[in-house]
Amino acid sequence: MNGSSAYFASGLVAVLSTRLIKGDKIVRLSNCVDLSSAYKLLQEFGYASFSKLDSPDFEPLLMQEMAQTIAFLNKYTMVTELTNIFVTFYDFLNIKLLVKSKKLDKDLSSSCLTFGSIEVKELFNAIAKQDYSSLPQFAQDLLNEYDKTELAPYEIDLIADKAMYKHFLSLAKKSNNKEMLDYVKVDIDLTNIMSSYRSLNANFTAEFTRQFFIEGGNLLLQDLSFDTLTSLTNSFDVKDYELFGKFNRSVYLPLCKLCLKICQEKTSFAQAETYVDSYKKKFLQPYSSVNNSVMPLIYYYLAKQAEISNVRIILSCIKNKIDKELIKTRLKDIYV
Length: 336
What we know:
Layout: H1 3-17, H2 24-30, H3 35-44, H4 59-76, H5 80-104, H6 120-129, H7 137-146, H8 153-175, H9 178-201, H10 206-210, H11 226-233, H12 253-265, H13 270-284, H14 295-319, H15 324-330
Helix pairs in contact: 1-14, 4-14, 5-6, 5-8, 7-8, 8-9, 9-12, 9-13, 12-13
């Protein structure tokens, strides 16, 4: 995409950003008493396909909305290496699902997402025939790694996640975009913190937990002191303590405190997940209005992704008659 096209894309993103469902719109949608009234409101907000929906099965239309968002990202990108970080994410999800389905001898291809760079049918056939030659190199490498030994389901996830972030780092470095390289490193750090505390919450051993650590971020494996972390969770005083390793001197201190509190109180990690989304939003926000750059497009994509997630949460809560105040605690910040 040339310079003039890049400016056009940035201008288009600026217009579309004003139409995102946030603020008062989110409040109005959350206050709907039933799905019918929510569908009508979504139609008003630009989700035209909801005008014909008369059933509680709204997921296909949300998937359609996500597919259109990915198509928009691919159409207007000027740096495919960077936007592919978000597109190939779905390839890794599909690979994990199809490899597990092969182990279970069940066809789960209908559950795959169609947003990735690899056609689901092509991926399914390659895995079924164990011939990966037609697939992109990152998929070949991952599937060849799987074929080396018999794996437990959690190991399939573990190997894929490490391969995914290695691929993301490679794409970011290839693009020579420092902002996105830093973003991927931050994403790895946040993932490592969350997985460490989840493991702790599940009473996994330090040895078992260490294998989940993903290399390439700003934090190192030796920064983790699992003995200190374990002793902290045995105390119910969260006002005065020292977090494990270098985390207590990092910008991730608030997340560590939140995760520790969750472990102590044995509550859901949903609030921590919301914090992580918000942190990544704030990290990218300074670059969201840089013209002649792919960053506004990426920022809009993440905003639209958060919007669709919020719509799904709200509709699910309305469908299952969950308290409206609880709905608000589960919603993600819209980026723009």
